[in-house]
Amino acid sequence: MSAAGFLAYALALALAAAIPGPGVVALVARALGAGFRQAMGFTLGLILGDLTFLTAAVFGLALVAQAMGELFTIVRFLAAAYLGYLAWKLWRAAGNAAEVEAMASETVLGSFLAGLTVTLANPKTIVFYLALLPTLVDLQHVGLADYAVLVVLTTLVLFLVMTPYAALAARARHVLRRPSVLARLNRSAALILGGAAIWSLVRRA
After folding, report:
1. Dist CA 35 CA 167 (whole Å)
2. In this structure, are residues 13 and 128 in contact, taking their beta carbons and an 8 Å threshold?
3. pLDDT tens for residues 156-201?
């Protein structure tokens, strides 16, 4: 691959990742509810999910992914259930600072697995790697060295795009301490997450 090809891929991925979708919404909600550390665990899960689809596309596993359509349907339902659960927790916490703080006690591993699940069920991610990627990269001529560069680029781009979302939401969590503000903040996030859960159920890749 040429430097121009890598640059085109990085720019397209950055644009796709920056557009808010279920992954970004869930990440922000995670940061609001549990803090920056948990959000970064969630981000690592998102990145692994993207790398899974990248690997499938590069090594010609798109047909396998299509054959596993029922499995992806199950994963999509699991992701929607998680988003709904997170929405319920945020709504329930509302302006109760103690309950919001308690969400930070959840494990980073749990956040990581949640990020992975949400990404594997995200139609936008599936379309990008299994449909749009072949228009950006000549997959027939991607060698192991090219694949390694794509992995590094994917990790760096997603980390750079997602970290500001997590940092800003985590900062808002610490700054906006008044119960009335927390209530509005959490309930707004809960409504968005609930909408994302419904979108995950009805949207088709």
Report:
1. 9
2. yes
3. 999 999 999 888 887 876 665 555 666 666 676 677 667 766 766 6
